[in-house]
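Here is an idea for our session: we take a single protein and study its fold together. Which protein we use is up to you, so please pick one and set it down. Once you have written the record down, we can walk along the chain together:
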Amino acid sequence: MAKAKKAKNDEQRNGDNSNNSEPVVNHQKLCLSIDMDNRRIHGFTELKMVVPDNGIVGLHADNLVIEGVTVDGEPAEFEVFPHYQQLDSKDRWCVVSSATSAADASGSVYLSSLENELLPNVLIMCSKSAKPENGQGYTQMNNGEQSPADTIRLCDAKSVKLIRIDYWVEKAETGIHFYNNVLHTNNQLRRARCWFPCMDDNLQCCCYDLEFTVADNLVAVSSGALLHQVLTKDDPPRKTYVYRVDVPVTAQWISLAVAPFEVLHDSHCNLLSYICLPADVSKLRNTVAFFYNAFSHYEDYLSASFPFGSYAQVFIAPEMAVSSCSLGASISVFSSHLLFDDKLIDQTLETRISLADSLARQWFGVFITPEASTDEWLLDGLAGFLTDSFIKRFLGNNEARYRRYKANCAVCQADDGGATALNSTLATKDLYGTQSIGFYGKIRSWKSVAVLQMLEKQMGPESFRKILQNVVSRARDGYRSFRTLSTKEFRHFANKIGNLERPFLKEFFPRWVGSCGCPVLKMGFSYNKRKNMVELAALRGCTSRPDSWKDVDNFDPDSENREGGIGWPGMMSIRVHELDGMYDHPILPMTGEPWQLLEIQCHSKLAAKRFQKTKKGLKADGSDDNGDAVATSDVRLNSDSPLLWLKADPEMEYLAEVHFNQPVQMWINQLEKDKDVTAQAQAIAVLETLPQLPFSVVNALSNFLSDSKGFWRVRIQAAYALANTSSEDTDWAGLLHLINFYKSRRFDPNIGLPRPNDFHDFQEYFVLEAIPHAIAMVRSSDKKSPRESVEFILQLLKYNDNNGNTYSDVFWLAALVRSVGELEFGQQSIIYLPSLLKRLDRLLQFDRLMPSHNGILTINCIRSLTRIAVKLSEFIPLDHVIEFIKPYWASKTWQIQVDAKRSLLELEFQCHGIDAALILFIRYVNDEMSLRGQMKLAVCALRLCQMTGQSDCDKDVKSETLVVFLRLLESPLAFNNIILRHYIFCILQVLAGRAPTLYGVPRDETLRMGHTKTSNELKNIFAALIKHSIPTEPSSGHPHVPSDLEGGERETDSENHEPPKAVVASPGPDRSVTLGAQMIANAPAVEQRNLVLFLPEDDPIMIPKVQVLPDGQEPMDPVTNFLDDNFIDIEASMKAAAPLNINKGKEPVLDPVPDSLIPGEATKEVDTVSNSHEPKKPKLIIRVKQSAGSCRAEDPCNARTIKSQDGHNDADRGASSSVSVDAPPRNVAETISTSNQNFEDANSCHDVGSRVTASIDCAKPTIDGKDLVKELQCTADSSTVILHLQPDDNLPSSTGKTDIDLQSDKGKKKNKKSKRKRDGRPDDPEHLEHKQQKKEKKRKEKEKAKLLALRSQFTSIELSSHEKRVATVNWEDEPNLPESEVKEQWTESRQEAADGAGAASSAGTKYMDVQSKPAEPSEVIVFPSSVSTPQSTASRKIKIKLKNRSLGKP
């Protein structure tokens, strides 16, 4: 027995939080007002959070317009980085020429999108939190759990902030959906952030207070318990619904539905509510009549009450639902197609299982969550296991076993690769949640249930039940704030409670959970009469490919035999049915040698029989009575053997594929005498595949079909087996048996016609319903349907009579219509086709007048007509069929609309090939409004692609079509519908001959950063920007500058505003990934953008592309490595007397803002600045301090205004930060005259990362009134930003474009400083001004001489600055540090910049290298450098490199 482990406390679950590096949500309040007419919601959310030490809180919010953020009632700085950006895909996919290249590109785009969605994209600056005084802030109880008192003490010790976010959503397309007067949410995969800001993380759980204000005629249903309703005083009055979620849940489980609902309460339990639209009330009442049985069954099985205070089931129109069921905490939203009235039979099973499954997932999945993504399989399997217990209890043990048998068969066929490894990181965490979508998602779910059922078989049902009860009771413990379950903990419970030995568990979990593949067993036997023993031979294999074993995490090549010796723990039982009974023999080892030869002792003995000696030569087999010499004893008659039949793994203890070889008579015995439905189904599957069918097989199948005691699903399987065995060789025996069976049940023997329908016997109803379809599957030698089959189906359609029947025959008729589509018409049966088409037309007209349930009759008619048209395409023009189906687009029933489009896709595929079908699919998807309809069309397109071989796809699918799919993959349509996006990706993979899964897609590790690292870099950059944006404490004479001028943004028309565009860099093996490149899809092409500086004049000054790199950091890739080693080093202090003009022909000029050039509209624009109507980008403000002496040398007329080249995208979106750059002081009069100036920021490069904008901001006097701080506002863009130089006629043109490196000579400055100390001269402004003028004169002369030589080649000119420091922050407020300390910090900064590749660090300086090259466009790339700690007072330096090389060129 394993020793009990201590439960994990919260700190252990989240890692070491002693540094408090991640925010934690304690509580969230959501208040929304919903305007159904305008499809708009607005309101606010309040989050009570534990703020990390760096003071930055990262949240998720997409498709929201954030109006403002406050922290504890005070306005706070924040930045928004949209996860989705509309990319300019022009020429981006020029390299796509085949399906293989398109598949590679789709993998890159899809992975980038999924990785970026993990990042928090709303960063909020809060004050730094205080650490607990004691070590951890709390103590632990003896059981390892945190006590309530310690929890309170911990919350008091840490800084808990109240963050309020005001926002609104208009015309939402994802997350929240409007349809007429109905609203509902569907969080899909990481889409809760699309309707309220939150921490959309599976590890963040908290309680919620929810308030929703709607019109008084609407009902708002949400997660949690309804506390009260409040009628507002508005005109017209509105109603506010107040809900509370007392159980901590993640944001993805918060759901909302608003409509004029009707509410039904359960008569047995007041916790249950059933809600639907008024038209469906009668169906709802009949549908949910059983539900209390399932609800009470789960509570009894788990020995616990329902974890939430209430449970609501909401049914909405199918066209609104993204899936058939959407889960939320204490609420489930279903599609109304599941509802049925008391006249329908077929819909009952599907609906009841679906409702029971959603209730089970409230326990496992919503209430108890996985500890990590690799543990999701466990919660999914436990929910399926609980649903299986409901099926076994209320639908019968046969139903449960048969469904499990079929599911296991499907898993064994599909479990051939690493994508189905349940606990593998590569198949779970690295797939970002897509592992639960599509075909492989269903396979993984079935496999999860099968693995848990195997554990139940090993430990027993009661022990497994105790484990579930222990898991639930542990989660209901009030002391535990996290209700998570991990694979490791469940394994511990299996050892502690289930009494399973550790060696077994040590092998079981890695092999079944951490690996892929199922055992494949091929067995045969021989009976030794002399020893009365069965000799069993077995060969063990695996369904997975050998090359897939190395991909899983837990694969150990040393423990597995490479020659096929893959093993599984345990022993498989062999059940031997003898004359005296059945006996189980658990003797077949599942590990070790793949070949096994076993002996099984028989218990039954034959009566002694005297064998007379025959004459020589008369013995049939020529052998004696020695059993060892009998090689064919297994084919002898039963009188020669006590064996009736053998069955391997009778209790399904293994998820295995078994191929057993035994005589035909034994299979017949198993079918007729074995009462287990799985044994019967296995026998039927073997008998119908026999190469030669004796009449005994047909008779056995017919007898089983006629046996009313048999399980109806197995009887249907026997009917299809009879159809498959029917041929001329058997004189159509199977077909005759099917027809005779149907006539014996449904025909009047007196008149030979069908009797009126009578469906009181449900099992008989299901069997008879399947008979026409089985008859239609019968084929002759020419692959055509016999004439008898066509006549029989036409007779059933013609004489169907439902008068006097209590139940509806709509599904009965739909089955008949499907059988018509299954027929193959030959020369003898083609004469019946007009009559059949006439009957179908009558059914269509009837269904138009009296619509059937979900339009099922019309849907099956359209499908049958499509199949007939495809089969007879040589004789029937398909264009006529297309024109016949097209009007059904306008059907009032949504299911009919979607199915008509699916049929047209199939017809287009048959007419013009896969390329035309895919183009038509794109058109239909763009026109389809419902998300579920888009998904259904995508599934149809994927199936068509799977019907086409890879060679045909490369030949038939054009590159233009592939490019259209790639654009659709990164379009807003795909972002809004994650299921559609996944299927589009799967289509491109299937066209390339690959599996439809993200597993195994090549990843460029040089382009991929972990989302945690990227998130930390975002926060560090944001912290640096916010820190520098806080100005030095001004004096009383300092003019007030509104915060809007530095960190605000300009209002733009939300409808005319184009989506931001990002620069996409081509992947490279040795690239240094910028921040923006991490937040966009990697693409092979590069799109250039312009960056413009706004100055107060109309003439533009063209700014070259600038790359701000950390000191000592060299560019590494084609995007960033456009700087040569040859560049010019010049003075970096940006003195006013040293103009900077990089335009051709003149020196660079950057003049201060003169008083006379202040536009009058500047102050008006300040009033229109909003805090954040659009996503913001971080900014960097460089403050240039100018002395009075240098200001007198400036010419105000030289100032230039740089105009934006993308005027529609010039809204400022970033919070600003400032860095002071020393410059000569200026007089106060000029300062005051320009203090209220507001200059517009320009930005035409919209990247997923941060943008780059620069502007000359307002000027402010210093404390003593003599110095001027001029702010050069620069947005720090971590991704590539491209600028084009604009011609300027007003600027000098004699100077060629040069490479300029602004770098301070640290060594010379050190010598100068030492010299000043020796001379005793202080650093007074007059002395500095004198030295500056002297050096300026020398610099101009030297520069003028060398600029002529720079036109043809690069030279290096170094002009050092001895008096001023570069990018000095708070020059006057911070004292000078000792020289050694400054040098030490500078050295640390270089090391951190090299390691962090541009991440903001805690200490160091910044350098700015500027480099330019002639005749090429320029660009700006900003890499944030290190940021000093609060304790550091050293000045910062910036290194800017300018070079005129185009982006993407080598």
User: Anything to note?
Assistant: The longest strand covers residues 24-35. The chain is about 35% helix and 15% strand. The mean pLDDT is 73. Residues 55 and 927 are 46 Å apart (CA to CA).
